[in-house]
Amino acid sequence: MARVVELSYYPVKGCAGTPVREAVITPAGPAHDRSFMVVSEEGVYRTQRRNPLLAVIRPLLTPGGDRLTLTAPDTESLHVRVDTSGPRRKVDLFGTAYRGIDQGDDAAHWLSDLLGAPSRLVRVPPEHDRVTDGLTPGTSGYADSCALHVISRSTLDLLDQRMTDRGAGPLPFDRFRPNLVVDGWDDPHTEDRARRLRIGGAELGYAKLAIRCAVTLVDQHTGTRAGPEPLRTLATYRRARQGGIAFGTKYAVLRPGTVAVGDEVEVAAWGESEL
Q1: Which DSSP letter does residue 170 get?
Q2: What percentage of the chain has pLDDT greater than the value 90?
Q3: Chain-centre distance of CA 252, in angstroms?
Q4: Cα dihedral angle (183, 187, 188, 191), rounded to 10 degrees?
């Protein structure tokens, strides 16, 4: 029987995740997931691809989402009273224009000093109406694409074995920044074929394969690039037909609900892998 064994959300895009035992799955994914984003002064998103130190920033958001605390090594913590009604400003995410609510100069100074580049912190406005792509369309906050990212333990076990065979060590799950980790699927990459999932009170629809990028090269604890793995090994067996290297799967939310660690993962519909 497949079950959820890890559950996380990422309050600030590109920053560390917050593991939880239970999460409310909204149409945009786990509540507050990627609801904040670090941008340049011009409003262009910042990512670990160019700013790997984002990884060492650990956000803590109150359950109601009204207060955000950011911590980082050797740095005084930042406490932000979240603004959800201030003036909107233009932000750019992968070349697409959205809106964000600026969270003030204190947050801007803290982030700029840490990252060594002028930065601002913005929040998704309540009227955010993004439409995500894939086989099942949906919505999300400032995530790269879809509402939820799912990976199974067997999928990572296969990668670890292949990396070991090549003389490299295993990697932790946090390199891939999933929302849900599933255990109990014997076959690696079962998530590639699962078209509809029922988990707790939520139902998810398959959107697309997760195409990996240089973020997987960043050590999530030190904020430094740590070499060619896992992309070097993944390139030997996970090249997608549409281009890129696929590892894990993106899902849209068909029915919101509460999901908890230990919940059974029921596959309600199957399809063929798009790899």
Answers
A1: P
A2: 99
A3: 13
A4: -70
Backbone torsion region of residue 111, taken as left when φ is above 0, otherwise alpha when ψ lies between -120 and 50, otherwise beta: alpha
Q: What angle do CA 144, 176, 23 make, to 5 degrees?
A: 75
Whole-number pLDDT of residue 41 = 97
Identify the CA nearest to 73 among candidates 223, 174, 177: 223
If you search the block for the tokens 């030997």, which residue do you land on? 236
**199 vs 257: CA distance, rounded Å:** 9
The rounded distance, in Å, linking the Cα atoms of 35 and 40 is: 17
Measured CA to CA, the distance from residue 55 to residue 178 in angstroms comes to 14
Residues 249 and 155 sit within 8 Å (Cβ to Cβ): no
Task: Check: CB of residue 205 under 8 Å from CB of residue 254.
Answer: yes
Longest dimension (CA), the chain: 54
End-to-end CA distance of the chain: 25
- Residue 244: strand, helix, or coil: coil
**Beta sheet of 96-102, edge-to-edge order:** 36-40, 119-123, 96-102, 88-93
d(CA 178, CA 51): 20
Nearest to 121, CA basis, from 51, 213, 41: 41
Regions of the chain where pLDDT drops below 70? none
Half-sphere exposure of 108 toward its Cβ, with a 13 Å CA cutoff?
A: 14
Q: What is the pLDDT of residues 195-241, one digit of tens each?
A: 999 999 999 999 999 999 999 999 999 999 988 999 999 999 999 99
Pairwise CA distance, residues 47 & 52, whole Å: 7
